[in-house]
Amino acid sequence: MAVGSFFTSFDLSAFINALILGISIASIWLIAALGLTIIYGAVGVINMAHGEFIMLGAYSSYMLQSFLGLPFLLCVPASFLIVVAVGLILERGLIRYLYKRPLDTLLATFGVSLVLMQGVRLIFGSDPKYLAVPPIFSSNIQFAFVNISVFRVVVLLVTIAVVVALWALFYRTRFGVQVRAVMQDKEMAASFGVNADRVYMLTFALGAGLAGLAGSLFGVLNIVLPTMGAAYVVQAFLVVVVGGGTLAGSVAAGGATGELQSIFAYFTNDTFARFVLFVMIVVFLRIRPQGLFAPSAKRR
Amino acid sequence: MRADRRAFMKATLGAATVLAAPYGFVKSTNQAWGAQSWIKKGEPIKVGLLFSLTGGLAVPEEDSTLVMQYAIDEINKAGGIAGQPIEPVIVDAKSDFNVYSEKTKELILRNRVVALFGCYTSASRKAILPTVMAQNHLLYYPTCYEGAECTQNTICTGPLANQHSKDLIPFMVQQFGKKVFFVGSNYVWPKESNKNAKVWLQQAGGELLGEEYIPLGSSEFGPVLNKIREAKPNFIFSTVVGASDIAFHKQFKQEGFKVDSMPIASLTTGEIETRAMGNEFGAGHFLSAPYFQGLDNPTNHKFVEGFLKSKYGKNGVTHYNMEETYLSAYVFKYGLEKAIAKVGLEEVTPRAIRDSTGGIKVEDAVSPEGLIWIDDQNFNAWLKPKIGQCQADGSFKIVKASAEHVAPDPYSIYPDLGKCTADGLKAADGKVRKSVI
Q1: Is B387 in contact with B288 (CB distance < 8 Å)?
Q2: What is the pLDDT of residues A156-198, one digit of tens each?
Q3: Which residues of B touch A138 (CB under 8 A)?
Q4: Searching chain B, which residue's CA lies closest to the CA of residue A142?
Q5: Which residue of A has its CA nearest to B315?
Q6: B285 and B202 both lie in a single domain
Q7: Domain match, B144 and B71 both
Q8: DSSP 3-state of A224
Q9: Of B178, B274, B321, B418, which is least packed with CB atoms within 10 Å of its CB?
Q10: Nearest-by-CA chain A residue for B254
Q11: Kind plus residue range of the DSSP H or E element containing B179
Q12: Beta carbons within 10 angstroms of residue B182's beta carbon
């Protein structure tokens, strides 16, 4: 194959469309990764069940919509709350006993992911489910040569809102100060009267809930299946690892990887774009293993 | 104990006899267990159902398992085969290619099933074929595939790549225009199918604007849809499969593409996929398949009604993949009956069933898609591909049905490699290669 035929010829308007799409891809990857970022960054648990929390969010929306007839826009926050509850139960029942054994949390959360997947399959069956959305979400916006679907804009706006809310929570509230204190040094924070156990519990539940929120959005873009989480979890881990486990890191990493994916896909094709991106990430982590914005904290 | 020369000789001779004994059987009966028959009088006939009930492939393959059980019940109620009932041995291949090949060995060696029905993807088929061929066993592959295989151990009831898009491409070119964009999942079946489609496209005078492949399981179609928007084709030819296919149709509409001016012509988007994506995302697009749930003939009405009412019809749909699986049960029944008549019940081997299956017909009264028959050379099915357009309620309206049966040809785009015959792949110089995968 000639090089010329492999690379698409350059066209400014198409390239601008690719850049805009990159922002959208970045927002999808970022919202998939936010919950993982918080759980990994604050609690220090590598949550292998993250993809299944996303899946639970999608199924929660499906359940609320088809059994209770809730409109989609209410399903999104409701899914958040349902998965928060699941995260809370999981943290209280299992994860809290494993904080001192990081390798075991890895295995335990992996086990939880299998249980959740199989549980959902037993209840709902393995045939795909369908989330109905208002017709306006199935259309697109056209402005001169720029094309973008309404739902992608919705995902982007939700992502921005969640990032801002998280930033405010961590840097503008008393709870946020406690979380950051526990992140830096759990024992020291505890000796100043911070209830570290409670902080862990709440951040884990919050992280789980964010995955649920992402899931209810992904159910519209994609397909609702017990195995749907696996498609997002790789990107989520990628964003967290490149970002270094902080909120700012994830935002930067999500933005950069999503945008690069779209640009490479524009010049070549999706499969090759992914290959180039992964190679770049491996090289990047060789140079900077701690990620973009690593916390200067004492790690457990 | 003192080992003397005589004792050593005795022991060696004894060991040699024991080791050589099975080979005597192999030579005389051409199967390693000699005395043990595959089918015994008065016992049920065991067949293996090798599909995934869990994992990423569970969506289509669970339905295959259910419809096979339905077909087996139906055959058993009508008296079984030669008076003996069929007993399915159901295993879960867990969407894992290693498990497919392990379970194949288990089904053949431990359960001693007389035939295997299984697989939905070419990848799993290619994973188990070496075992099936080494045991000289028999696989019914009940769905579409790309061809370019010539084994003496498979029977396929779905369309080959050369049958699948033969009518679809000229039809779309005629209805919507010459310019087309190919989108597929990144693995062997879409690539081979597209090679075939290019041949039909050239004959129809069409023009290929671009060809894109998406990683299996990917759900991000933004970049591809942007490229399609730039290229402005008259229609899209899709070989995207599974969950990606649903994401593709959803994002097609969400990104503002209009089905009237640029429909997707697919080889896989059937009733199940349409229901999962929501009817409004499927409506207007085209599918080529030998079977649709909406086919209007008495056999199909009976099949749809009977299946959906049975305990296996819980998913509420019949689609091309299930119907092809259903047919394979009858192809097995007829082939086995012929083999029993030829060699006798206890002498039947999997290979004997396969050799008797050439030319087997499944008549209109049994086959929901209408008459099909098995080619006596390459053991794929002669069938009539049909084109359906998805309606607003998710059902498909038949817009074109092939008048003639289309011959299966696994090597249609590789004529240099030869012709698939009953004994193997026959090259132009007359050499025959067995078991080509």
Answers
A1: yes
A2: 999 999 999 999 999 999 999 999 999 888 889 999 999 999 9
A3: 253-254, 280-281
A4: B256
A5: A127
A6: yes
A7: yes
A8: strand
A9: B178
A10: A138
A11: strand B179-185
A12: 22
Residue A78 CA to residue B96 CA, distance in Å, equals 35
pLDDT band at B403, cuts 50/70/90? confident
Please say whether the dihedral angle defined by the alpha carbons of residues B249, A75, A134 and B397, taken in this order, is positive or negative: positive
Number of structural domains (chain B) is: 2
Query: How many Cβ atoms are within 10 Å of B181's Cβ, its own excluded?
Result: 22
Q: Which tokens sit at B337? A: 């009956």
Query: Distance (Å, rounded) from C-alpha A229 to C-alpha A246?
Result: 22
ipTM of the complex: 0.84
Distance from CA of A51 to the nearest CA of B (A): 14
Name B302's Cβ contacts closer than 8 Å, sequence gap at least 6.
none
Provide the number of structural domains found in chain A: 1
In tens, the pLDDT along B79-126 reads: 988 889 999 999 998 888 889 999 999 999 898 999 999 988 888 898
For residue B81, what is the DSSP state? B
Q: Is B411 helix (H, G, I), strand (E, B) or coil?
A: coil
Q: Do A225 and B230 touch (CB under 8 A)?
A: no
Return the structure tokens found at B79.
């008296």
Task: Report DSSP state, residue B436.
Answer: B
Q: What domain range includes position B141?
A: 45-159+296-374
Nearest by CB to A270, which of B224, B280, B315?
B224
Residues 6+ apart with CB under 8 A from B357: B155, B331, B334, B335, B338, B374, B379
Task: Write down which residue in B268, B289, B310 finishes a domain.
Answer: B289
Contacts of A125 in chain B (CB under 8 A): 314-315
| CA–CA distances in Å: residue A227 to residues A60, A119, A271, B181, B314 | 15, 12, 21, 30, 20
Give the pairing type, strands B154-156 and B139-141. Answer: parallel
Residues 6+ apart with CB under 8 A from B263: B172, B176, B235, B236, B284, B285, B286
Q: What H or E segment, with its residue span, contains residue B71?
A: helix B58-77
Q: Kindly report the CA angle at A119 between A118 and A124, in degrees rounded to 5?
A: 100
Quote the domain boundaries for residue A228: 30-242
pLDDT tens, residue by residue, A16-66: 888 999 999 999 999 999 999 999 888 888 899 999 999 999 999 999 999
Query: Can you tell me the distance from the alpha carbon of A77 to that of A67, in angstroms, rounded to the nearest whole number?
Result: 17
Cβ–Cβ of B215/A271 closer than 8 Å? Answer: yes
Chain B residues within an 8 Å CB radius of A14 = 226-227, 230
Asked if residues B241 and B185 have their Cβ atoms less than 8 Å apart, the reply is yes
Q: How far apart are CA B296 and CA B302, in angstroms?
A: 11
